[in-house]
Amino acid sequence: MARSLLFYANMQxxxxxxxxxxxxxxxxxxxxxxxxxxxxxxxxxxxxxxAEIYKVIRVIDGDTLLLLNGEKVRLIxxxxxxxxxxxxxxxxxxxxxxxxxxxxxxxxVVKLEYDWQRRDRYRRLLAYVYLMDGTFLxxxxxxxxxxxxxxxxxxxxxxxxxxxxxxxxEKKRGLWKKEINGA
Length: 183
Prior knowledge:
Blueprint: H1 2-48, E1 52-61, E2 64-67, E3 72-75, E4 78-79, H2 94-105, E5 109-113, E6 125-131, H3 137-143, E7 148-149, H4 158-170
Parallel strand pairs: 3-6
Antiparallel strand pairs: 1-2, 1-5, 2-3, 4-7, 5-6
């Protein structure tokens, strides 16, 4: 009988140690699930978006930026009136569009996101530009009426940009204050 009680006591100690070990393992596994897995998912989502961070040193015109690394960036889906075209005069509302983009982006750090085509025929980067406060510059230019939705080529936000342009026109924002070409 004493021997069976001793055996029972030893077995109970082994079970208690196993339960403590299991509890610690369970806690570590939960911590892993709660903190590490979401961090990994976030990392892969951010890296999958092909986003890069740069500083804008100069705004060339309303839809083109110059980065600190020397790259020129053409904003995807946006067409602002010309101010620097070698064969065209400054167009209506071009100076205002240039000043708006300059005030929004020049000297600021931005995040670039790319679409299906990375460069245009002039070797400029084609990108969606986000300010560090989250403002989507391409969309904001159209929403405020400083540019048109450039829909010659397909892009991710084409439907939204068309809607922003329609709203800007209906609310007579920016270049839409005055009807263009009698339209």
